[in-house]
Amino acid sequence: MAFQVKPLAVVIALSWVLSMQQHSSSVNGKPQVPCFFIFGDSLADSGNNNLLDSLAKVNYTPYGIDFPGGATGRFTNGRTTIDVLSQLLGFDNYIPPFSLLNSSDILKGLNYASGAAGIRKESGRQLGARISMDRQLKNHKITISRIADILGKKRAKKHVHKSLHSGVKKWLAKKYLSKCLYSVGMGSNDYINNYFLPQYHDTSKKFTTEQYAEALIKQYSQQIKKLHKYGARKVVLVGVGLIGCTPTAISAGTNGSACVDRMNLAALQFNQRLVSLVDQLNSNLTNAMFIYINSFEMGSGDPAAAGFKVSNVGCCEVNEVGQCKFDQNPCKNRSEYVFWDGFHPTEALNQINAIRSYSSAINPADTYPMDISHLAKLKFNHRVAAY
Ligand SMILES: *[C@@H]1O[C@H](CO)[C@@H](O)[C@H](O)[C@H]1NC(C)=O
Ligand SMILES: *[C@@H]1O[C@H](CO)[C@@H](O)[C@H](O)[C@H]1NC(C)=O
Ligand SMILES: *[C@@H]1O[C@H](CO)[C@@H](O)[C@H](O)[C@H]1NC(C)=O
Ligand SMILES: *[C@@H]1O[C@H](CO)[C@@H](O)[C@H](O)[C@H]1NC(C)=O
């Protein structure tokens, strides 16, 4: 509902957040957290699917038309919400994708997100290869042992030791990882590329939407607890947005509504349980903080109030899987469009969503129980006994 705020107020609030941010990062020159790890789907993917045998990959024009690096595999015209968040957090560079990485920059974080991926292993299967949440966690485990080696070498050099016991290296890594920020955004493909595709998946025959939300959250809970076990202490959980209002959903028929109501209702049922999971994790796991990003709230309200002119069709002509057709000219005025292709928002919307996730000053309902700027500032003691 925050879009109902007067546009001028939104613009002033956004530019205030941005100018404050630029000020603070130029003063100390260091990001607000030393590292940022990203788990998710196409909304966050920055190239992990490029090397996969999959229809869900977009390393071709016109994707990236407004991005300095061109078509990197990001599912939008410019920056993703994660890219803008990295800037707000004061990082000089975007967080690189896990699959394309070969440098020691992994200490600043990695992006594991994969288009078409879900909480459930089979979600997105009909599009080809993708990296499910369980596999993203396995990739993170690989990163952790690399970080342990890097930190171990640094420590050994400093103290002129030949090598360190593996337990000490693990402890160094866990201590470091507890300072990082983690963003996890999953669930959309468990609906769009699973439950609501009965021609490829049988989940809608096995579960009601309530039962399905329950089953998804149960599995997600295990995955998030594993991430915590791997040392994550500051975790952002991004809720599912208005999946019934994407151009692809709308073009399939809305039965008289503005959007496909049953898809949005299913997303709400999932989000409701995700909020309750956040409460449980915060009370059960001390010395850690989990926050919820209310993407659904951010997508509600009148897009015109934020300066958008088109919200029911995307900016480019799409193919049979809702992605921009290869090498076609997209619309010229991309900042007037909410959607870039059949599913994914434009950079213009990503920028607003990132700012609202970073600071809840515009609308307190955007984040729970705190926003990312406050989460980043928290400090947790790493228990020495952990190894
Ligand atoms: C690996 O690192 C080198 C040097 O930084 C870079 O030129 C190259 O593009 C990187 N390769 C990949 C696959 O990222
Ligand atoms: C369409 O809307 C009518 C009236 O609200 C409802 O009875 C019907 O079940 C809807 N059909 C579908 C396919 O959602
Ligand atoms: C939190 O603890 C309660 C009480 O022990 C338990 O019932 C619940 O399942 C736990 N929740 C999570 C997410 O671990
Ligand atoms: C693009 O949108 C901006 C902001 O709404 C507007 O000022 C500008 O005139 C538009 N340009 C074109 C070519 O439509």
UniProtKB/TrEMBL annotation:
EC number: 3.1.1.3
Compartments where located: Secreted
One GO CC term on file: extracellular region
Residues spanning the signal sequence: 1-26
Annotated keywords: Hydrolase, Lipid degradation, Lipid metabolism, Secreted, Signal
Family affiliation: Belongs to the 'GDSL' lipolytic enzyme family.
Official protein name in the record: Putative triacylglycerol lipase
CDD domains xref list: SGNH_plant_lipase_like
Gene Ontology terms describing biological process: lipid catabolic process
Keyword Lipid biosynthesis: no
GO molecular function per UniProt: triacylglycerol lipase activity
One Pfam short name: Lipase_GDSL
